[in-house]
Amino acid sequence: DEIPTVVGIFSAFGLVFSVSLFAWICCQRKSSKSNKTPPYKFVHVLKGVDIYPENLNSKKKFGADDKSEAKNKSAMPKSSLHLDLEKRDLNGNFPKTTPKIQSSPGLENLSPKHFAEKKKDSVSPDSLKSITSLSCEDKQDKLGTLFFSLEYNFEKKSFVVNIKEARGLPAMDEQSMTSDPYIKMTILPEKKHKVKTRVLRKTLDPAFDETFTFYGIPYSQIQDLTLHFMILSFDRFSRDDVIGEVLIPLAGIELSEGRLLMDREIIKRNVRKSSGRGELLISLCYQSTTNTLTVVVLKARHLPKSDVSGLSDPYVKVNLYHDKKRISKKKTHVKKCTPNAVFNELFVFDIPCEGLDDISIEFLVLDSDRGSRNEVIGRLTLGSSAEGTGGEHWKEICEYPRRQIAKWHMLCDG
After folding, report:
1. How many C-beta atoms surround the C-beta of residue 256 within 10 A?
2. Global pTM value
3. Nearest to 380 by CA among 395, 393, 396
4. Same domain? 256 vs 296
5. Tell me, what DSSP letter sits at residue 400?
6. Both 171 and 202 in a single domain?
7. Phi, psi of 184 (to 5 degrees)
8. What is the pLDDT of residue 123?
9. Residue 62 above 80 pLDDT?
């Protein structure tokens, strides 16, 4: 019985020894492989160099000696630009070095103020005034000329407008002294047809050559229409600059004989300002049990004429604020071509806090315009901190909850 046990012990020790020896050999091979450098081509591919060592005969190889670098530095001419990489700052920029000026007896006595005075004296104030006045007059008086053609297609019962080009536009960008013009065209008075051309970059004589065809317009109604061209300059960072406008009444223009070529001088935009911004009738009701605010936008009256046609397409945007942060927004439907709109639309807002101390509501009356950004006709704010009728109306709904209270409010400038 003792012999098999001894054999089993020896075999177990032998197995453990052989396994440990095999593991040691594998580790040695792995370490020896890691110490070896990969092939030269593989190193350069990792570094992003797309050439192989065979093609580096006439070029500087990586890992060159310092002696060769010193020779190259000495061989460089003195006039060549040399950048010392060790002198760069933390951001990787080179420090600005001021060139040394040899001092002379005449220059030592001159101060920097003396140089500034000499520069100022080189251009007289009178010449500056004349230059600025001329540039301002040119910008104000000369806005360019618009060239276009009109035609009526009797077979298709369509009205065709071709915007050809504009010449002599003023420069709206003072840095590049150019403009990025484009044209918006509207058929008045209904404002149903609104189109615009593409933007042409950096030109004062844009050649658009774009044709717009309007279907469903009877020839008998052409005499009642007016074409309104708005010439603008595109601005990527702010609102587009208005260069001018052209207004063409079609009364007395005969299109039965064929295409009619026309040109008109671009005039300054006529902005009609009214004494007031109109009034808005609002009804409010605060439900303290459900903590909700019911807002009814009833009517608007005496809205100003915000378009050339004298008609507006108003709608009301309602914004609810809590601690000066907008938490909800609603808007009414658009009422076409009227300065006295009847909305009668109800909105219910959930109040996130108890009471109306930190709540305010804003009403924006806007003119709907599909071709451009909607213009704000007037603004109204109701809240505890509001002045005038806005504050009085808010105080009443807080004192008399569950009661619907309606009031007229004057609109302020948007």
Report:
1. 8
2. 0.41
3. 393
4. no
5. S
6. yes
7. -105, 135
8. 42
9. no
